[in-house]
Each structure stands twice: as structure tokens, then as C-alpha cells.
Design goal:
SH3 type barrels, single chain, 5 helices, alpha+beta, binds biotin
Length: about 250
């Protein structure tokens, strides 16, 4: 029987639901949407629901940034969960997506705090966690088969295909769902250790903001559930993980 690819996705992802049974309860596959984050809200998705788009045209990233049109090259999906401590969710998703990508690439990757997945400083995947009311909606964008980029991304983005990995989007989605589901069930200490092994920010010079305060210095150490220790010209400071953002990062 001939099936359009969307049906194939639905069938394979339903099998992930059947074998997971704990974190992932339903997968909704949609042909095209501006943002799977908004689609999840619009569809009234509940904890355990996943919204996957064949194509996402106007995704958003953290800190008001945009996520480029996936076309038929990238993965865009959103996982709905009960709301929870933002640092723990960010950590579990970072470790989960990193684990999936490592499985696909067969090599280690870095996590640039809080949750960018990077290879040689280029971004392979990004995570956006939005919480309101009782729900958290965690969106994952993963670059799979792009071989060319818009000018502004050419130096900073990379795809699985460019790193020599198989570029099957459905395999990538399955790997992400399985690995994130595992990570969400892991205790804090296991997640923190997995983060630390992949920490791609410590050692770098960075400009960070915590509330109204801007801090520039060398990131000495990160505990993703606690904070970042930064050496500045006027001494060492600890910035809380929950309220700190990176404005800029230079060498490492
Ligand atoms: C970032 O790196 O700043 C986060 C990027 C998150 C992009 C994903 S793609 C799926 C989901 N839908 C969105 O609109 N954004 C997230």
C-alpha cells in the first residue's frame, strides 16, 4: 500500500508511543505550521502529547530569536509536559537531545549552557521551553539534511548531513523522543554529570545578564541546577541559573 510520508511518520511515531507508555502518550503529526509551540497550544495538547511538523515555517527561539524555516530538511517538534522547575527541564532536554544526536552521529557533542547542542561551536539543535499555567511546552529544533544556509547562519549552524551522519528526519525524531523520555526520568545527579561531560561554555569568555546586572568574564564552572561561576576583573561571582542569560560569547 502506498503511503504518503506523513502517514509513515504517524505509524512509526505511534510505535514509539506504544513502547514508551510513560512520558510520551500521543504524537500529532501536522503537515505545516508556523510554530509547533503555538500549534500545541491551539490544539489543546496535554502532558504527554507531542506535536511534530513536516514543515515549520516561522519557528521561534530563545530570547526573541527566530528559528529558520525547516523546509523538508529540519526537525521541529514540541513536547507538552506538566510545568516544572525551569532549570531541571532545561537540563533534562539538553541531555536528552544531546544523547539522541550522539546516537545518530556516533560521536560526542557539546552542550552550550543552557541547552544549545553544538559541534565545533556550530549549532546543531536548539531547545525552547515555554511555561504558562499548568503546562510546559518544550520545543526542539534539529538540523538534519541542510547543506546550505542563509548567509546569517552559514558560520554558526550545522546539520547532521554536514557532519556525515545519515539524514533521515524520522529516525532523528524517534531518537529524540526516546532519549528525551529517558532523560526526563533520570535523577538530577545523573543529568548534571551528563551535562558536565558535555559542557561547551565553561572556559569561554562571555557577557551574561542577570536581571539588570551585566557581567563580563571567564565562565569557570557551571552547575545547571544552581548557577554559573564567573571570573571578572573585580573577582569571582556566582550567577543563578534560573535568571541568567548569555548575551555574547567569545573564545574558549
Ligand atoms: C533556540 O535555540 O533559541 C531554541 C530554538 C527552538 C526551536 C524549536 S523548533 C520547534 C519548536 N517550535 C518553535 O517555534 N520553536 C521550537
Amino acid at each position: 500500500m502506498y503511503m504518503i510520508p506523513l502517514d509513515q511518520w504517524k505509524e512509526r511515531l505511534d510505535a514509539v508511543v506504544a513502547s514508551d507508555g510513560e512520558v510520551i502518550r500521543r504524537v500529532i503529526v501536522i503537515r505545516e505550521t508556523a510554530s509547533t509551540q503555538d500549534a500545541a497550544r491551539r490544539l489543546g495538547a496535554q502532558p504527554g502529547d507531542v506535536v511534530v511538523a513536516w514543515r515549520q515555517t516561522a519557528g521561534r527561539g530563545r530570547l526573541g530569536r527566530r528559528w529558520a524555516d525547516t523546509r523538508e530538511d529540519g526537525v521541529a517538534l514540541s513536547i507538552v509536559l506538566p510545568c516544572g522547575p525551569p532549570e531541571r527541564l532545561a537540563l533534562a532536554f539538553a541531555v536528552g537531545v544531546a544523547g539522541a544526536v550522539e546516537r545518530l552521529l556516533d560521536r560526542p557533542v557539546g552542550i552550550k549552557w543552557p541547552n544549545d547542542i553544538v559541534v565545533e561551536r556550530r549549532k546543531l539543535a536548539g531547545i525552547l521551553i515555554e511555561q504558562s499555567g499548568a503546562l510546559a511546552v518544550a520545543g526542539i529544533g534539529l538540523n538534519v539534511s541542510q547543506t546550505t544556509w542563509p548567509k546569517e547562519l552559514a558560520e554558526v549552524a550545522v546539520s547532521l548531513a554536514q557532519l556525515g551522519a545519515p539524514d533521515d528526519r524520522l529516525d532523528a525524531i524517534v531518537a529524540v523522543l526516546e532519549s528525551v523520555s529517558t532523560a526526563l526520568r533520570q535523577p538530577d545527579d545523573v543529568l548534571v554529570e551528563a551535562f558536565t561531560e558535555r559542557d561547551a561554555l565553561s572556559g569561554a569568555e562571555a557577557t551574561l545578564r542577570n536581571g539588570r546586572e551585566t557581567v563580563h568574564g571567564t565562565v569557570l564552572r557551571i552547575d545547571p541546577l544552581e548557577g554559573l561561576w564567573v571570573r571578572t576583573d573585580s573577582g569571582e561571582v556566582r550567577l543563578p541559573a534560573a535568571t541568567t542569560t548569555i548575551l555574547a560569547q567569545s573564545s574558549r
